[in-house]
Amino acid sequence: MDQILAKVFFGIFSTAIIGGGIYIFFVKNILYALYAVMAVLLSVAGIFILAAADFVGVSQLMIYVGGILVLLLFGIMLGAVHKKSEALMVKNVNNLWSILLSILLFSVLVVLINKLTFIEDFVPLLDRNTVSEIGFSFMTQHLLILEGLGILLLLALIGSTFLASKND
């Protein structure tokens, strides 16, 4: 029963990704395109979670959907307050080249996927907790890298605060 449910959710997420990508290609309004990007990113996070990569799925939600996409939405919504609605419209150019390149890339992917060998009865290891394994790895083997990244982020925060206060 779990395999059937996983296949159903995989189909739903895959359809949302493909549909969102097609919608992004043909929509004229940037705001609607960003909503479609949000649907695509949420679906990708769902596929990661289905593949038992819970840390990557949650990271996808927090970084891309929760951070970058919301920043883009606020930038478009707040930046276009005083402008007309036509400013948010885009014109798609080179549609023929885009479609041809998409077909070419899709063909390459189909050929490469057909050359791969897959395990027929793949059962994800749902009893493993990848988050605790990653945390344990960070605190034992990669502690120096973790501390270095923390210091780098602190320096970036101090630098951005300094630059922001310098402009005022």
SSE layout:
Elements: H1 2-26, H2 30-50, H3 54-79, H4 95-115, H5 130-140, H6 143-167
Helix pairs in contact: 1-2, 2-3
Second CATH tier, the architecture of the largest domain: Up-down Bundle
Cα separation of the termini: 61 Å
**Spatial extent as radius of gyration:** 21 Å
The dominant shape is: extended
CATH class of the largest domain: Mainly Alpha
Q: Into which percentage range does the β-strand content fall? A: under 5%
Number of domains: 2
How would you portray this structure in words?
By secondary structure, the chain is mainly alpha-helical. The protein folds into 2 domains: 2-90, Four Helix Bundle (Hemerythrin (Met), subunit A) (Up-down Bundle), CATH 1.20.120; 129-168. The chain contains 6 helices and no strands. The chain has helices at residues 2-26, 30-50, 54-79, 95-115, 130-140, 143-167. Helix 1 (2-26) runs antiparallel to helix 2 (30-50) and helix 2 (30-50) runs antiparallel to helix 3 (54-79). The protein is extended, with a radius of gyration of 21 Å. The model has no long low-confidence stretch (mean pLDDT 81).
